[in-house]
Design goal:
The chain is α+β, with helices and mostly antiparallel strands. The protein has one domain: Muramoyl-pentapeptide Carboxypeptidase, domain 2, CATH 3.30.1380. The protein has helices at about 5-25, 30-35, 65-70, 75-85, 105-115, 120-125, 145-155, 180; strands at about 95-100, 140-145, 160-165, 170-175. Strands 1-2-4-3 form a four-stranded antiparallel β-sheet. A hairpin with a 7-residue loop joins strand 3 and strand 4 (about 170-175). It starts with 5 loop residues before the first helix and ends in a 17-residue tail after the last helix. The structure holds zinc ion (ZN). Zinc ion binds near residues 135 and 171.
Amino acid sequence: MGRIVPVSLAILGLAIAAFVRPSLVASAPSSSSAEVGQSTGTHTALDEADGVIPDGVAVSVFDEGLPAVGKLDPDLLDALRRAATDAEPDGVGLRVNSGWRSAEYQQQLLQDAVVEYGSQEEAARWVATAETSAHVSGEAVDIGPFDAAAWLSEHGAAYGLCQTYSNESWHYELRPDAVDDGCPPMYADPTEDPRMQP
Ligand SMILES: [Zn+2]
């Protein structure tokens, strides 16, 4: 390490600054984030109270102590619990990968998606704003693992549980009419959903 000359250190410092900067921007109130509705309060770390589910933690639809589950729409939660109970004898365990989210958490996910996908337009194909997200209103749930989502795609309509978007095999919402009529056609992705329009 003693061989690194000061110029190299300066370049390294610039590289680190460039790397760190997006997270600083994301945590600071700015005019660009205000237009998608971020609160201008001080940023605090997101936690379970925001609906965050820690990585690697298997959460069942009966874990109502977790806000991600407990703050879901009661009718959606009831349907999920009936489905989960019926899936169990098939050897399938429904898990909640994401459920209710605070507006702050949704905003953070959207900002992360803009960084990941490189533009606001591409990010909108995958992540809604805090104003439009069905997760923020407690009306959507992301189900895993893969076999559980597959079980729901086959049996979910009987409980009014329907996949909303073709590109999100895990995202389910309650469509009570599906019990009699089957699930409505999916949108290709969220940009086709009229609810996502500003
Ligand atoms: Zn979702």
